[in-house]
Every structure is written in C-alpha cells, then in structure tokens.
Amino acid sequence: MKEMNRTLELIQERSSIRRYKKDPLTEAEINTLKRAALATPTGQNFQELRYAFVTDQKIIKAVDERCFHHNPEMLDRLKSRNADSIFYGAPLVVFVSAKDTTWATADSGIAVGILALAAQSMGLGSVILGMPRAAFMPDDPENCCALLGMEEGEKFRLAIAIGHPDTTKEQHDKDPAHIRDFLG
Ligand SMILES: Cc1cc2nc3c(=O)[nH]c(=O)nc-3n(C[C@H](O)[C@H](O)[C@H](O)COP(=O)(O)O)c2cc1C
Predict the structure, then answer these.
(1) Regarding the domain delimited by 14-168, which CATH topology (the fold level of the hierarchy) does it fall under?
(2) Which of 15, 21, 45, 165 could anchor a disulfide with 125, C-beta 3.0 to 4.6 Å?
C-alpha cells in the first residue's frame, strides 16, 4: 500500500479558513458539493439530515444578525479576527439540520466532515461552524428556522462555510498521544 495518496494528503492539508474571496462558486461546484452531502452515511440509514445550501447573502446576514442579537460579544471576538460575520464572508454556507433522532448529532458531524474534505479536494477552503446555533433557538420567536425552510421539530445542527480562501492557516497540532494502541 502506498503511504500517501491524494485523499490522505487532503486530510492532512485541510485547516479552517476564516477569510474568503468574494468570487462565487460555480453551479457545477455547488452541485458537486450537494452530491457529496447526500453521500453522507447516517445511523440506521435514517437520512434525517437536511441541507440548506445558501449563497443568498441577505439570508447569511439575517443569521449573523440574529446571532449578534443574542450574543453581542460575538462581534467583538470576530473583530479581533478581522471579521464581521460568523461566516467570514464565504460565498456559500451549508446549514445542516435534522429532527431529533439517536444519530442526528453524529450524522451532522460526519456530513460537515465530508463537505470539508470535498471542498478541499476542489481547491476550496472551509470552516465548520457551531456558532450559528444562536440564530435557531427553538424558544426564540424570531429565530431563522423558517427562513431556511426548516420543518416543525427540525433543529440546526452544524453549518460549514465554503469558498475560495483569501488566507492560509497552519494545521492544528496533531498529538500522537491521543491515540491508544491495542494492536496485538
Ligand atoms: C463542531 C465544530 C464546531 C466549530 N464551530 C466553529 C465556529 O462556530 N466558528 C469558528 O470560527 N470555528 C469553528 N470551528 C472550527 C474549529 O475552531 C477548528 O476546527 C479547530 O480550531 C481546529 O482547527 P483546524 O480546523 O484548522 O484544524 C468548529 C469546528 C468544529 C469541529
């Protein structure tokens, strides 16, 4: 077996990108990402994940504003990263939502992981996002659930911002001590 192949290289090369060029993604790129999302395996094949592919910056801004409404301090934290949006100016954001099932949390993590690697393989950058959850709180009558077409009982799980990187970032430290060997 070869020690490295292109997929393994992409896994090692990926890092979170927090600044994007304005260039939009092509329709073909978006369709490729949609097919990648639909290839996500789900526990017991429940397939309860729903994906909102959003390039409409008005929607992205509305989610930002609802987050800042609940957490005004978020904006200060972003400013320290030279950003004014929790989506860092990405031309595409994919919101993953699901009704409550045993596997919804795990499934959504796998989905954004697959999307991150798909984006990387296409020469795009990405960052996985939990912060948008503040805009989707069920007890907030002005939450953004309807804006993204979520059905009754569907909850925001994770999002991923994707676009052409306008920055680079070192990969995080990888600590071999986090692995326990029982290799017989
Ligand atoms: C579940 C999850 C939620 C995350 N939420 C955010 C977020 O809301 N905002 C953000 O800037 N980064 C977020 N990140 C990115 C992490 O901060 C990042 O993956 C981590 O610092 C490691 O860096 P790397 O992705 O470059 O390896 C999230 C990552 C994961 C896996």
Answers:
(1) NADH Oxidase (3.40.109)
(2) 165
Q: 110-123: per-residue pLDDT in tens?
A: 999 999 999 999 99
Q: Where are the domains of the chain?
A: 14-168
Instruction: State the Cα–Cα distance between residues 157 and 65, nearest whole angstrom.
Output: 18
**DSSP string of 83-117, one letter each residue:** -SSTTTT-SEEEEEEE---TTHHHHHHHHHHHHHH
Give, for ligand 1, the residue of 129, 157, 168 to mutate: max count of ligand atoms closer than 8 Å to Cβ.
129
Helix (H) / strand (E) containing 132: none
Pocket test for ligand 1, best of 63, 88, 126, 127 (most atoms within 8 A of CB): 127
Question: Buried b / exposed e across 155-181, counting CB within 10 Å, b at 16+?
Answer: bbbbbbbbbbbeeeeeeeeeeeeeeee
Distance CA 81, CA 88 (A): 9
Query: Are 125 and 20 spatial neighbours (Cβ–Cβ below 8 Å)?
Result: yes
Per-residue model confidence as pLDDT tens digits over 67-90: 999 999 999 999 988 899 999 999
pLDDT by residue (tens digit) across 128-164?
999 999 999 999 999 999 999 999 999 999 999 999 9
pTM summary value: 0.97
